[in-house]
Amino acid sequence: MQKLNRIMKTDSKPIQFTCSLCKQTFTAQIPEHFAAAIERGQITHYALCDSCEYRTRNIRPEIDSGSLLISEAEKTKMWNDLCPPLYRETSPAKLPDLKSYNSVQAYQYGPRGLIMLGETGTGKTRSMYKLLERLFYEGHSMKIFRPLEFGDVCAEMYRTGRGKYWTDELVYDYDIMAIDDFGKVVLTDRVESTLFGVIEERISRLKPIILTTNMTGSTLEHYMSADRGPTLVRRLREFCRSVTFRPAK
Predict the structure, then answer these.
(1) Euclidean distance between CA atoms 131 and 147, whole angstroms
(2) Is 230 a member of any domain?
(3) Residue 81 vs residue 104, higher pLDDT
(4) Is 218 a member of any domain?
(5) Which of 7, 61, 180, 186 lies at a 20 to 30 A Cα distance from 212?
(6) What is the pTM of this model?
(7) Phi and psi (nearest 5°) for 30?
């Protein structure tokens, strides 16, 4: 809402919204013709208060003159918003496959992504979040999807008329897109086509994708439709390094 408040200084009126994330009410200046349509219920809107807009975009600190400086406390809070409490503290020595954990931590940001494969309970998710924590503090913006979340968010975004804006954000606004338990997303045709399109666009723009999954390439192919599954698996194999996690012996 900050952009609207800055740009629309004339022919506007205050409209009260409820933030779609924190559910707090706030007021924003909206152009009169849009405001009238909103009041009549002709426009379905998705609104974020300034605080939630700031946090969800995961603004990166820039260490130069005139930039927005973010305190260490604020950075910690931002990371804690991204990382579930269970995965904030990880002891590598206690993981069943330390070699694969170390291989994941050796990843350096670049156009080539990373796929962590293996059975449930082998340490894939903990390894992913530990890697993402380092990349976050190096200054990389990221969007992390927890199991099943991509499908739920996708359905809500298209229901509220924000689908195209949301997919553009995933392609252009984030240095990293990560999906935990890839293959658990419930795939309607809309969700599958969106997921395929976002991954394809990010790969074509040399923006990495980081995934965990307990599926193999062949099961992933059958997880998606026949016209998308093989293509997606081929692209992921080509543009992502894979690390296979094994259970403790």
Answers:
(1) 18
(2) yes
(3) 104
(4) yes
(5) 61
(6) 0.71
(7) -125, 140
